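Milestone M4 deliverable, item 7.
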Amino acid sequence: MRFLKLDFRNAQGDRLSARLDLPLDEKPAAYALFAHCFTCNKNFNAVFNINRALANEGIAVLRFDFTGLGESEGDFSKTSLRSNVEDLITAADFLKSELEAPKLLIGHSLGGAAVLQAASKIPSARAVATIAAPFDPSDLGHILGSTKEEILQRGEAEITLAGRTFVIRKQFLDDLEQVKMDEVIRSLGRALMVFHSPRDTIVSLDNAARIFQAAKHPKSFVSLDEADHLLSNRGDSLYAGKVLAAWVGRYLDLPKLESEHRDLSDNRVMVRTGKKGFQTEVIAGGHRLLADEPVSVGGADTGPNPYDYLVASLGACTSMTLRMYADRKKWPLEAATIRLRHKKVHAEDCEECEAKSGTVDVIEREIDLDGDLDQEQRQRLLEIADRCPVHRTLHSRIEVMTSLKD
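Output delivered:
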């Protein structure tokens, strides 16, 4: 996933810091806007994981810090849900003027309430997704604990959340009391996806039920079973991202490149490894894949490792070659299953290897042929396996020409 650092000005002239998460190799098929949770910021891990899943489907997502949070300018103590909605509308206008208006709005926690409120003022939005969002934002006052009484009496108070101290003013609570969600949701007029966990202790599950009941179709609900409110477990946000990416494609009319129209002359494969870990995005022939390393060597095991892909290419080429040969000969080959294993061995331990020193790469390949084949046919197919193009490439001299892109 590529990203661009951006910024834009809110209605008060404060600079809001943003990042645009982009698909790896192409112009986005659509744009989305993400509203983070109360006192969080755009760099929250759950936001990153969800955006990556959307980018894999060709959707670019703008994530930004609300006024006074993260890297954005402004006084957080003067903000409210209403100002968050204004920031969202400004962000949507920024996308529209600079790139393309957003078709998807995503909001986490109080950000979910904000996108529901903002949707009617962002006409380009066709779908809305909420994650752990409150139906009645005033209920969030309970997270302030005893500080709420101090705010009501003194007009403001400091509160520490997730190790950071914020000043909350009475206008923030007053604004939450005035928000009416029921009619906003009933008149949403967009496809709605509601994500929530039954174990959420910050915003209870009944909030999701009320949002879902108030909404008109099309609407969907997904239970994030074991997740906490912040989706702290990486697997929970990855799951939410994958489900959202699959769901939203139904409503955004994302263009699909027909395989028969694909330019076969451009056979470049693109890969990208980001700043953290070894997870690597791969785009080959218009197909998106992931490569990674096992957890034991510092990876996250989200995909095959590079040698797995190397061996898989040999296996795929072998089985395809056998299929083509059997079809041409009209032989009754039902299926060809190839099992492979890669390993490195000392040359002196390899009787069939030409090299006699150092280590040698060895690929063990077992071929399982299904069908009413006689022994002569089976033996011939075994010989044909060594003629597959990838096999020949691995046994030929290979030149890798490397250059740096300016």
